[in-house]
Every structure is written in structure tokens, then in C-alpha cells.
Amino acid sequence: MNHLGIRSPSAKVGSLVYFGRMLDKIRAHEKNELPPDYQTNLGRGFDEFCTKFLQVQYHDVVSRVKEGGSDEEILWWCFDKGRRPSENEIYVWNEFMRKRGWNDEITETVKRRKKEAGMADRSEIDTMFAFIDMDEGRSATANYS
Predict the structure, then answer these.
(1) Per-domain residue ranges of the chain
(2) Closest residue by Cα to residue 112 from 100, 95, 128, 98
């Protein structure tokens, strides 16, 4: 589904993983281009983790995205309205998110999603980020820098 223009969860905006993907989903939804299976978790799951980390409300981020601006401008808006994490906090965030599904409470969800997608035998897909990338046609190790 990468033809939708939704970037990898590992892609960074302002050194922060996932934020850009959340913005892509908001924009696609506003254009009625977001598939129904993506709409279920808008503002929930990783979106909710991200907005809580930045201490902003998801609906406020949606409103800000509707106003326009670059990803970096929207991120700085979040820093101004919520909080600006330190470099160390961003590092911890990135590593936490990058490893979601690997020996934690969503490991079973990753296994279930892999099975549903016909990838149950793919041992290299051991995190939710890796699953998303493979499911959307990207390498499981895309953008992990």
C-alpha cells in the first residue's frame, strides 16, 4: 500500500520516528484516500503514543495539519503547544517505537497480523514497524537509521 504516499513508520521528521507517518495518514484521510482498515486506528495505537509523547491532543494535530505547512512546521507547532523532548528522550522514543512487538505486550498482535498477511514464516519480521514496512511493500529494515 505504499502507493498511498504513507511513509515508513521508521522515517524521521526532526529526528522523531513515526510522526511523519501519522501526518501522512491524516492528510490521506482528509482527501478520502485512506483505506478503511487504516481509518480504524486514527488517533489510536501509535498515533496516540505519539501525541501523548508530545503532550498534544490528536484532534488538535488534525486541525493543525488542515491549516497546511511542512512536516517540520507542524512538529514545531507540537513542540510549542505541548513539549519539546530532549535528544535523549527522542532517542528513547525512537528505540521504544522501533522495537514495538519484539518480546512485549503486542508480540501476539504482530504474530497474528503476520499470519493474516501470509507472512507467518517470515522470522525477520519481529516488530510492528517491520511488519508495516513489509505489508506496504518496503524492506523490513527500511529507514532504521
Answers:
(1) 2-85, 99-138
(2) 128
